[in-house]
Design goal:
Blueprint (H helix, E strand, L loop, with lengths): L6 H4 L1 H14 L8 E3 L3 E3 L8 H17 L2 E5 L5 H15 L3 H4 L12 E3 L14 E6 L10 H28 L4 H7 L6 E7 L11 E6 L5 E6 L5 E5 L2 E5 L6 E5 L1 H6 L9 E4 L5 E8 L6 E2 L11 E2 H15 L11
Helix pairs in contact: 3-6, 4-6
Bound molecules: 2-oxoglutaric acid and fe (ii) ion.
Length: about 325
């Protein structure tokens, strides 16, 4: 049985129509994208006895979160071996038959745990050439069947949670938010884990198909592991930049909630994955609060009104259903 989601069959009309009209018009192609020198923080310095070293590392992290909304970290506490193992186990689960992956309760996941394409897409712009397992951290332990995958995911989630806390503490302090806010509002069980697979895309040369459409993350902070293929791009000053794979590094990006909490100081930056002719994997940990947690802008005058995480998610979902895109923080501007 085939493991590949039926992208071409299901989206035949959408693909043909969009590719024809866009090719004729010559619009919406990806711009020329160059790789960026994403700031890279060596977290070994965070634990240094040398105060100057520590402070300089903290400054790098804060500046990257302000100017880029994205940075990379090395010496983050998760070994390359561990990350490679995650990729191997991830690959195995995606290799299961498609008919099995779409079954309700596959691996004992809740409904909508397995996602592919975008059933609601009306144009190519809303369509992602990828499949993913998206699950709450608290559901990892009840996963059935793939024992090794579960163990690796548990280890990754635990390490990513520690890493997210270290970074959030540094970033919060700099904008006058006490770390206790996170300790009280973000229990490890409220975060999410997402395993992404980007199948080789036969239309990648058209430069019109995305592996993952442009979006910002709905969380405080994300920890991302990408394999060596490349394709992740971020938007900076109106231009797209590629994030060059670095096997030793994890990618950190600021999410919408931290932009709101920091009153716009830290940037939740749009990013996307372009489709290529190669299979690609990534794993993302989304550091989130509990549903009822309130997010309030720290700074005067406040840019955003206070909202709960639940309200933010509901509004985003409604916007996606009605407009095809998330809209996001703009909805909460004062
Ligand atoms: O695949 C990647 O590199 C990024 C994934 C991502 O942005 C996401 O899952 O939100
Ligand atoms: Fe993302």
């Amino acid at each position: 049985m085939d493991s590949e989601p039926p992208f071409e069959e299901t989206y035949k009309t959408l693909l043909q129509n969009s590719l024809n009209t866009m090719e004729v018009k010559g619009t919406d192609k990806f711009d020329i994208v160059e790789d960026c020198n994403l700031p890279l923080a060596n977290l070994i310095h965070i634990r240094s006895d040398d105060q100057l070293e520590r402070e300089s590392c903290i400054r790098e992290i804060v500046e990257a979160a302000r100017n880029w909304g994205f940075f990379q970290v090395v010496n983050h506490g998760i070994s390359i071996q561990e990350l490679e193992t995650l990729k191997i186990e991830q690959k195995k689960v995606f290799q299961q038959p498609f008919e099995k992956k779409i079954q309700n309760k596959f691996l004992n996941l809740s409904s909508n745990g397995y996602r592919w394409g975008n059933q609601k897409a009306t144009c190519l712009k809303q369509f992602s050439w990828s499949e993913a397992f998206h699950l709450s951290v608290k559901d990892i332990s009840s996963m059935t069947e793939c024992n090794n995958l579960r163990l690796t995911m548990e280890r990754f989630a635990r390490a990513a949670s520690g890493l997210a806390e270290t970074l959030v503490e540094i970033l919060a302090e700099n904008v006058g938010v006490k770390f206790t806010y996170f300790q009280e509002n973000c229990p490890p069980s409220s975060s999410f884990l997402r395993l992404n697979r980007y199948p080789p895309c036969p239309f990648s040369s058209s430069e019109l198909v995305c592996g993952l459409i442009p979006h910002t993350d709905t969380d405080f902070l994300s920890v991302v592991y990408q394999d060596r293929i490349g394709g992740l791009q971020l938007l900076k000053d109106g231009r797209w930049f590629g994030v060059k794979p670095n096997p030793e590094a994890l990618i950190i990006n600021i999410g919408d909630l931290f932009q709101a909490l920091s009153n716009g100081v830290y940037k939740s930056v749009k990013h996307r994955v372009v489709a290529t002719q190669f299979e690609r994997f990534s794993a993302a940990y989304f550091y989130c609060p509990a549903n009822e947690a309130m997010v309030e802008s720290h700074g005067q005058p406040a840019i955003y009104r206070k909202f709960s995480f639940k309200e933010y998610k509901q509004q985003s979902q409604k916007d996606v259903e009605e407009t095809g895109s998330k809209v996001g923080l703009q909805r909460f501007l004062l």
